[in-house]
Design brief:
about 220 residues, four-stranded mixed β-sheet, three-stranded mixed β-sheet, 10 strands
Length: about 220
C-alpha cells in the first residue's frame, strides 16, 4: 500500500527532484487522501527517459522512503537547443564587476555587470526611486544579466527581495521563481551585507538560483 503524504512533503519531493541535474521542473499530483497519482517532469534531453524515471524513483525512495510506480511518472524533454552551453555543474564563476544606480527625476535606473566565462553581461532595470523599489531593481537587473548569459534556456521571475536584521547581522534575502511550462519553482538565497548593500542583493539573487546554475559569486 502506498504511503499517504502531506502537502509539505509534496513540495519537498518537488524540490528534491529539481536537484537532479537534468530536471528543470517537477510537479507532483496527489489524490485527496495524499497518495501520489502523477509525477510530471520537464527535463533536458541529456539522458534517456528510462534512466530519468529510474533516477526519479531512486531519489524519492532514498530521500523519503516512498516507493513510486514508474507508470505514474511522465517525462517531457526539451529540444537540444535548450541544453546549456555547459552542464549545470560546469557553469563558470559569476563575478560582480559593477552595480550602479542613476537617478533622473523620480526614476532610478540600475545596471548590474557580471563577468561570466570571461565575457561581460549587463542587466538593466528601471522604476520609481523609493528605497524598496531600488532593492528590487538591483535584484531584477542581476536576473536580467544572468538571463542574457543563458540566452533563453531558463526564465526567472523576482518574487521579493529584502534587507533584514538577524541578530547582529544585516542580511539580503531574495526569493526567485524559476518559470517553466509546468509552472513555477520557488528558489531563495541570502547574503550578508558587509560593505555594499547593492552588491549583497546581487549575491543573494545569485545564491537563490545557484542550485540551478552552479554559480559561485565573489566580490
Amino acid at each position: 500500500m502506498e504511503r499517504s503524504i502531506s502537502a509539505t512533503t509534496i513540495a519537498e519531493i518537488e524540490e528534491a527532484l529539481s536537484q537532479v541535474s537534468e530536471i528543470k521542473a517537477a510537479r507532483v499530483v496527489a489524490s485527496s487522501d495524499g497518495r501520489i497519482e502523477e509525477i510530471h517532469v520537464l527535463a533536458l534531453p541529456t539522458k534517456s527517459p528510462k534512466q530519468l524515471v529510474r533516477d526519479i524513483e531512486s531519489t524519492i525512495m532514498a530521500t523519503f522512503g516512498i516507493p513510486v510506480d514508474h507508470k505514474k511518472i511522465s517525462i517531457a524533454q526539451l529540444g537540444q537547443d535548450a541544453v546549456p552551453r555547459t552542464s549545470p555543474y560546469d557553469h563558470p564563476r559569476a563575478l560582480i564587476r559593477s552595480v550602479s544606480a542613476e537617478t533622473a527625476g523620480l526614476e532610478v535606473r540600475v545596471s548590474v555587470a557580471l563577468e561570466i566565462g570571461g565575457e561581460l553581461y549587463i542587466g538593466n532595470a528601471s522604476g520609481p526611486g523609493s528605497q524598496t523599489t531600488r532593492q528590487r531593481l538591483v535584484a531584477q537587473a542581476a536576473l536580467n544579466a544572468v538571463e542574457e548569459y543563458l540566452q533563453g534556456s531558463m526564465a526567472f521571475a523576482l518574487e521579493d527581495v529584502q534587507v533584514v536584521r538577524l541578530g547582529q547581522q544585516t542580511v539580503a534575502v531574495a526569493c526567485i521563481a524559476l518559470v517553466t511550462s509546468l509552472g513555477e519553482q520557488p528558489l531563495t538565497g541570502a547574503a550578508l551585507v558587509r560593505q555594499s548593500e547593492k552588491d549583497s542583493i546581487v549575491k543573494a539573487t545569485l545564491d537563490a538560483i545557484n542550485r540551478r546554475l552552479g554559480f559561485l559569486t565573489t566580490t
